[in-house]
């Protein structure tokens, strides 16, 4: 993730912190004033300067508020360090802490690089039907992992170690699902600059398990590539993810290009910020298995 989590102290302006955390500048200043969640320094000319720890605290607070926690309580939890469970150095300890604590299993595993422990946690989790794994375990675990990263409780390398292993597992589900001949084709991916793949990848796997010929294009695809790669008539629908608010402009560009090239092609959006493109693409909701079921039903309903 961010180089700034490496421990080096970097000064960030309000604008930079807003870009890094997705918190509007006014809200940043209000959280500081009302809840004291951070105390930024000042530049020589009097502007606020935030260090890396402040950015992590603000990102953790935002994650809590987005999850429904009232801001005052979120600030208290961030200040008291109770946003996630305890972090230990040993992989066994991490696994135990992850398994029992509110920090979650994946966050616990991201404090070390125990391949066997991670493998056995993923084996156990993925033993359930994938439709249950995604919404009941994987997405909540990823949210907790992000919260732990934002609070500085897991190192960047550990977070990459875990998310890469998750990506391999979900890719395996996508690859092994059988698609019948003549199945409707749906193209799934992320717009330019967007790299949070796990939601859309999981969604593509869910579609394949429902017999859809889901073509997964991964992340960071610019608008012109969407137009070239989505050959109009053979494609029944397109799905783009919008995991961060910052992903909305690029996603809008891709959707607008697709709408211009293929009028009438059904366009859908998923991920946390899907509503930011609701005027261009149908928002699929936040429960992946339900969204996959409903999209497949709409494909079969289309003459
Ligand atoms: C893993 C991860 C990464 C990995 C991604 C690896 C990969 N192969 O995907 C890497 C290391 C690349 C990464 C990078 C960054 N990350 Co990151 N990352 C995460 C983490 C832990 C999980 C992401 C994920 O897969 N989420 C899946 C779910 C949980 O996503 P969701 O959007 O909330 O979706 C919900 C629903 O809409 C639904 N859903 C999800 N997808 C879809 C799709 C469809 C079709 C449908 C119907 C539904 C659906 O499921 C969810 C549960 O209901 C999140 C934590 C989090 N809360 O998401 C942080 C997080 C998203 N990252 C964050 C940040 C800040 C970054 C970086 C900017 C860090 C940096 N400075 O470099 C970069 C940006 C990269 C980019 N340009 O896109 C922040 C974003 C804050 C914000 N602004 O919104 C988060 C929230 C962490 C945090 N708590 O602060 N990250």
Structure in words:
By secondary structure, the protein is an alpha/beta fold. It has helices at 14-21, 25-35, 52-66, 71-80, 91-100, 105-109, 115-126, 130-150, 156-176, 198-209, 223-229, 248-261, 288-301; strands at 41-42, 48-49, 185-189, 213-216, 237-241, 267-270, 282-283. A five-stranded parallel sheet has the order 4-3-5-6-7, with helices on both faces. α3 crosses α4. It is globular, with a radius of gyration of 20 Å. The structure holds cobalamin (B12). Cobalamin is lined by residues 1-2, 20-22, 59, 63, 139, 142-143, 145-147, 149-150, 160, 163, 167, 193-200, 203, 239, 241, 243-246, 270-272, 284-286, 288, 291.
Blueprint (SSEs and pairs):
Layout: H1 14-21, H2 25-35, E1 41-42, E2 48-49, H3 52-66, H4 71-80, H5 91-100, H6 105-109, H7 115-126, H8 130-150, H9 156-176, E3 185-189, H10 198-209, E4 213-216, H11 223-229, E5 237-241, H12 248-261, E6 267-270, E7 282-283, H13 288-301
Parallel strand pairs: 3-4, 3-5, 5-6, 6-7
Antiparallel strand pairs: 1-2
Helix pairs in contact: 3-4, 3-8, 7-9, 8-9, 9-10, 10-13, 11-12
The structure holds cobalamin.
How many beta-strand runs? 7
Task: Provide the β-strand percentage band.
Answer: 5-15%
Main sheet overview:
5 strands, parallel
From the spread of the alpha carbons, the general shape counts as globular
CATH topology of the largest domain: Rossmann fold
CATH structural architecture of the largest domain: 3-Layer(aba) Sandwich
Instruction: Describe the strand arrangement of the main beta sheet, using strand numbers.
Output: 4-3-5-6-7
